[in-house]
Amino acid sequence: MALSGMTGFSRVDGVSGGWTWAVEARSVNGRSLETRFRGPGGFDGLERAARDGAQARFQRGQLNVTVQARHAETDSGVRINLEQIERYLEAGRPYVEAGRATAPQIGAILSLPGVIDTGAEANDPEALAAIEAAIAGAIAEALDRLRSARLEEGAALAPVLGGLIDRIETEVASAEVEARAQPAILKERFAKRMSELVERGGDLTERIVQEAAVMAGRADVREELDRLTSHVQAARVLLAAEGAVGRRLDFLTQEFMREANTLCSKSATTALTGIGLELKATVDQFREQVQNVE
After folding, report:
1. Would you state the pLDDT for residue 122?
2. Band (121; pLDDT cuts 50, 70, 90)
3. By mean pLDDT, which of 59-63, 84-88, 120-124 is the weakest?
């Protein structure tokens, strides 16, 4: 599977046996897979079809699947079950009075099972089962189209992410060139520091060791540059990999930023610090784009 995004929308309409329906599926970014369903009463199997279908097609993202279904004979004569509404209100009243819940809105009440009577119970059970199966098929089609939309987003993201990785590689190469001057600069600073200590007099052995250790630690950024180069290679492998790679790219981005921060802290020149800051900015752009990858 190619790189997939997490944002998309699809809609599938259908008609059969006097019934009409519309299925809408949309998704946005999410750290894990979360599926929410809203559908008509009397078709209890549709929510399971939506959740199982989403589980089979996606690994990450917040999905909303909505089904609207109407029967021609009941469109003009919708009946509201007032007794059922009272039961719901009575059941929720203690929670509202205790301040543990807010008063329900009319839209939420009307969406509860048994509140709106569409007359579905008067139909042939076998016919209703056939309609439910047809709507379940529409849900599957909507999820397939949603998957295609997310793949299109992934196809658009791939060159953007690849370009950012190329920029990171270029910045790491520039840092390698600039870092070659660090030992000489730090050696000069060390010599100057030693001259200052000599002028003060006293036992210099311990201070010299301390200063030398600090300078040596700052001079060597080879490990950071090697790890950054390795992360660039790993990112390219992930961008070309099959399946959902967004979570692994997100972890890799954290490693990029960790090494960029260390590079800046060990920099002994303004030029190397500038490269490190540019690198951090590029990594941050990469991180933002990775949030859209499944």
Report:
1. 44
2. very low
3. 120-124
**pLDDT: is 139 or 122 the higher one?**
139
Report the C-alpha gap between 153 and 5 in whole angstroms: 5
Contact 282, 167 (CB under 8 A): yes
Phi, psi (deg, nearest 5) at residue 26:
-140, 155
On whether the CB atoms of residues 120 and 19 are closer than 8 A, the answer is no
Cα separation, 156 vs 151, in Å, equals 9
Give pLDDT tens digits for 139-189.
999 999 999 999 999 999 999 999 999 999 999 999 998 888 776 666 666
Task: Please check whether residue 293 is in contact with residue 154, taking contact to mean a CB–CB distance below 8 angstroms.
Answer: yes
Q: Which of 79, 76, 108, 80 is nearest to 92 (CA)?
A: 108
DSSP character at residue 221? -
- DSSP code, position 241: S
Chain centre to alpha carbon of residue 22: 28
**What are the contacts of 26-31 at 24+ separation with CB within 8 A?**
26/63, 26/64, 26/146, 27/58, 27/61, 27/62, 27/63, 27/64, 27/146, 27/150, 28/61, 28/62, 29/61, 29/62, 29/291, 29/292, 30/6, 30/60, 30/61, 30/62, 31/60, 31/247
Q: State whether residue 176 is helix, strand or coil.
A: helix
Pairing of strands 79-80, 33-38: unpaired
Minimal CA–CA distance to 147: which of 53, 262, 261? 53
